[in-house]
Amino acid sequence: MTKLITVVDYGMGNLRSVSKAAEHVADSQTKIIVSSKPEDIRSADAIIFPGQGAAKACMSALNHTGMIHALHEAAEEKPFLGICMGLQVLMEHSEENDGIECLSFLKGKVKQFDLSGHPELKMPHMGWNQINQTVDHPMWHKIEQDSRFYFVHSYFVEPEDNQFIAGNTTHGQTFASAIAHDNLFAIQAHPEKSADAGLQLLKNFITWNGQ
Amino acid sequence: MGLAKRIIPCLDVDNGRVVKGVQFVDIRDAGNPVEVAKRYDEQGADEITFLDITATADNRNTTIHMVEEVASQVFIPLTVGGGIRSVDDVRNMLNAGADKVAINSAAIFNPAFVQEACQTFGSQCIVVAIDAKKVSLKGEENKWEIFTHGGRKETGIDAVEWATKMERLGAGEILLTSMDRDGTKIGFDLELTRTIADSVNVPVIASGGVGELDHLVKGVTEGHAEAVLAASIFHFGQHTIQEAKQAMTDNGIEVRL
Question: Is A128 close to B46, i.e. CB distance below 8 A?
Answer without folding.
Answer: yes
